[in-house]
């Protein structure tokens, strides 16, 4: 069995969104970056930002992506956060089993729109 945290799984939900097989409201759609609202928002604003390349989590993204992809990604995160959360925001990037990562395609979550609670609520 293929380990989704070891080898990129083209069947993951975000890969399907990138291929247009699943719907998502495209808040930003650039050459290297896509952003859309989280389907189960944990805050008033909850946006997912993903690179279009096949990266499992932040580790392989930062190790293997080109500087162009990395710059485009973080600039998009900054622009979306400023636009949607002018009073502040939190960024989350889960990686691997201990983090509870569910979708094995690198994503940054932008949370905001109201005062946020504790950073790490449960073990
Ligand atoms: P993680 O636990 O870090 O892998 O986060 C995955 C996030 O993706 C969760 O916040 C889910 O609510 C969200 N999610 C799962 N499926 C979809 C989908 N089809 N569209 C938008 N967000 C999704």
Keywords summarizing the entry:
123 residues; alpha+beta; 25% helix
Question: What is the secondary structure topology, with strand pairs?
Answer:
Blueprint: H1 13-18, E1 28-29, E2 33-37, E3 45-51, H2 58-64, H3 67-84, E4 89-92, E5 108-112
Antiparallel strand pairs: 1-2, 2-3, 3-5, 4-5
Bound molecules: adenosine monophosphate.
Molecular structure report:
By secondary structure, the protein is an alpha+beta fold. The chain contains three helices and five strands; from the N terminus they run H-E-E-E-H-H-E-E. Strands 1-2-3-5-4 form a five-stranded antiparallel β-sheet, with helices on one face. Strand 2 (33-37) and strand 3 form a beta hairpin. The model has no long low-confidence stretch (mean pLDDT 95). It binds adenosine monophosphate.
> How many separate helices?
3
Number of strands: 5
The average pLDDT value, as a whole number, equals 95
Shape: globular
What's the Cα radius of gyration? 14 Å
Walk across the major sheet and give the strand order: 1-2-3-5-4
Helix content range: 25-40%
Task: State the low-pLDDT regions, or none.
Answer: none
Q: Pairing-aware structural class of the strands and helices?
A: alpha+beta
- Distance between the first and last residues' Cα: 28 Å
Small-molecule binders? adenosine monophosphate
Main β sheet profile: 5 strands, antiparallel
Strand content: 15-25%
The ordered H/E elements are HEEEHHEE
